[in-house]
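Audit log entry. Action: structure prediction of a protein-small molecule complex. Ligand: pyridoxal-5'-phosphate. The ligand was supplied as SMILES and no pocket hint was given, so placement is left entirely to the predictor. Protonation state taken as written. Sequence taken verbatim from the request; no trimming, no tag removal. Recorded inputs:
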Amino acid sequence: MIHDNILDLKRRVNSVCSSVSVEPCNITIVAVSKNRSVDEIRQVIEAGINDIGENRVQEALLKYRILKNITSIRWHMVGHLQTNKVKDAVEIFDLIHSVDSLHLAEEINRRAERINKIQRVLIEVKTSPELTKFGIEPGKLHEFIKELVKFKNLEVKGLMTIAPSFAEAEKTRPFFRILRELKEVFNQERELPFKLEILSMGMSNDFEIALQEGANMLRIGRAIFEGE
Ligand SMILES: *Cc1c(COP(=O)(O)O)cnc(C)c1O
């Protein structure tokens, strides 16, 4: 079933790509496996997805220990990261999607330095005014990125956002558009030493809209594990 869900998902991704002429369709699908079993993750790998996302470090660690022989897996931290979990996070994750404070960035840098790692990260941006969401406010992103430049063991790869959920997916479009525009504006700045490449946006409900707005990394749970 997971295998079929992934085929369906890829078909839908490809069809959006060709309709908005994103060619070749260079989209990374991260299978978000929180609350799913190790066996389900194995099925995802067998179906050809090697990017696995978790939202809690403890749970990720347990799964990582069981699956670490499968070296093709790239582990993604997609949930809010607490500073006291950074030590473990830096050991297992290839990409941390949720950098949302200077304090957290500093701690990731410190822990990465200790194990001689350059930690790849995304900055989580709060594109909607909902109070419960984490993330840097769009108006503060520029300053924030400039601060991150001084951390030698961080590599800022791009931006991430979570859109509010709506019954009608179309309503998520403005939030994804904000993220794409931030990336474009930032990448026109000459004095900054790197480019933002990744836009991590779009989940099971709204990934088609996110793709139309320029997402190149999707975080998908239910559509893979439940076929919804
Ligand atoms: C759970 C989760 C997802 C996947 O959500 P689905 O609706 O199951 O596709 C994506 N991003 C984050 C941050 C999540 O916590």
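Audit: result stored. The CA atoms of residues 83 and 104 lie 6 Å apart. The two ends are 12 Å apart (CA to CA).
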